[in-house]
Design a protein that fits this description.
There is one protein chain. The chain has 247 residues and is of the alpha+beta class. It folds into two domains: 122 residues, Immunoglobulins (Immunoglobulin-like); 78 residues, no CATH class. It is 34% helix and 33% strand. The chain contains six helices and eleven strands. Strand 6 and strand 7 form a beta hairpin. The termini are far apart.
């Protein structure tokens, strides 16, 4: 709904004819209780003036907030433009008439306030439906319906379980190998750990306390240097271990 008013008057000092156009827009014109409605006032004038709208809302209309755009000069139309929006909310259904709208143009002399033609807002109530005594039917049961992608999920779960099983078996096997090496031949375990990039300090220290270490002077010296000096030649140490393993 758009209501336009063309105002023409004569300003005494200038003796010139000035035209003012006020547009009033209601959007939407029909709504439900609680909906937000925008009532817009727009002024286009050849002379610079400020539009002041009297804020009078009908009973049952709740004002929410107001938006006001600053005055701007449009070089295409050679007019000053300004706009003010009211955001309102209807509290209940019914017909609401904005009949007390007044616009005052400040900054102009000999200009009376302008009364805006009434603007009507229709608020429709929510429809009511009677409860039916007949109970609603149960949803149709699909006997032949198969779970979607159930076989795929099963395959994924089986693959994950198999992967964990192989990992556990691998770790258990490595643990048994290291246990056998420890029980049978500590030097083999030391050689194995060194080839894996590790330094078995605890195993070396335990072997140095054994009687076998007293008979292997060269290897004992190399392992003591590696253990306590923290400097050793890995390849040379492995060579000594391999020689002792062949004896």
């Amino acid at each position: 709904m758009i209501v336009r008013f063309i105002l023409i008057w004569v300003t005494l000092p200038l003796y010139s004819l000035l035209a003012q156009e006020i547009s009033v827009t209601l959007s939407p014109e029909e709504c439900a209780p609680g909906d937000l409605v925008r009532l817009s006032f727009q002024l286009e004038s050849e002379a610079f003036t400020e539009m002041v709208v009297t804020k009078l809302s009908p009973e049952g209309i709740h004002p929410v907030f107001t938006e006001k755009r600053p005055i701007e000069f449009n070089p295409q139309t050679q007019r000053y433009e300004q706009k003010e929006d009211w955001i309102v909310q209807a509290m209940h259904s019914g017909e609401f008439l904005f009949s007390e709208l007044m616009v005052t143009l400040e900054g102009l002399v000999n200009v009376e306030p302008v009364k805006i033609e009434p603007v009507q807002l229709t608020v429709t109530g929510y429809t009511e439906t009677e409860d039916s005594p007949t109970p609603e039917a149960w949803p149709t049961y699909l006997e032949n319906q198969k779970p979607t992608f159930s076989w795929l999920w099963g395959a994924v779960i089986i693959a994950i379980c198999f992967t964990f099983y192989r990992l556990i078996q691998s770790k258990r096997k490595m643990g048994l190998i290291q246990q056998d090496l420890t029980e049978e031949d500590p030097l083999s375990l030391i050689s194995h750990r060194l080839r894996c990039g590790e330094f078995p300090a605890n195993t070396i220290e335990r072997w140095l306390e054994t009687d076998d270490a007293q008979d292997m002077h060269v290897l004992r010296t190399s392992l003591q240097q590696a253990l306590y000096a923290q400097t050793y030649d890995r390849d040379a140490l492995l060579e000594h271990l391999d020689k002792e393993a062949q004896v």
